[in-house]
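Before going further, learn to read the protein records used in this course. A complete example follows; check for yourself that the lines match position by position.
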Amino acid sequence: MTPKTTTQPYPPGTRWTVTNRNGYTQTTELCLYAEPNYATITDDYTPDEISAHELWRIWVDKVAGKAHERWPDEYRPGEVTILWTLTTPSSGNVHEAAPHTRPLPPDLELVRMFGRAYQPEDFLTHFKVPTNADAGERINWLRLPVLDRGWNATTADTGGFIQEVTGWKPSPLQPTMDVVQLGRAAGLYVPDLS
């Protein structure tokens, strides 16, 4: 019997050669940072002021129907968009919008300012495709690790309350999360969106 193989995320410590379009090269670890819409609600609080469960309730009431109300043909009630950033596990000089993500529907204000040809920028606008510093192979974006986020006595990450109360984080480059499905699975409060 042939053993099954599975593709795993790149292990911690995997280093990438990153070259910008001007030729500057650096070698660094890379990872993905997921920011669900309005997860920056945490910027107004500290964990000793508000619990992860309280933040979940405030946040889910604010965002659960937002994308569907704005773009009813694109998103179902409960779907929340996720902004993806390519970064490093510790602060570094890579912090760009991740490539290969589902763009939001056109922002009418940007279309008015720049015309219909406006294209948002991402990592590949400014950098070449990274290669593994040891093996030389091109990066598989879907194997990059997703940063863990928390909201507790020792950690106050932006949006960390979501992973803290649900135990969940998105798969690499996942475009949306269904907060009703996720909240129910975790036994949390969810608003009635019917």
About this structure: The longest helix spans residues 52-63. The CA atoms of residues 76 and 103 lie 16 Å apart.
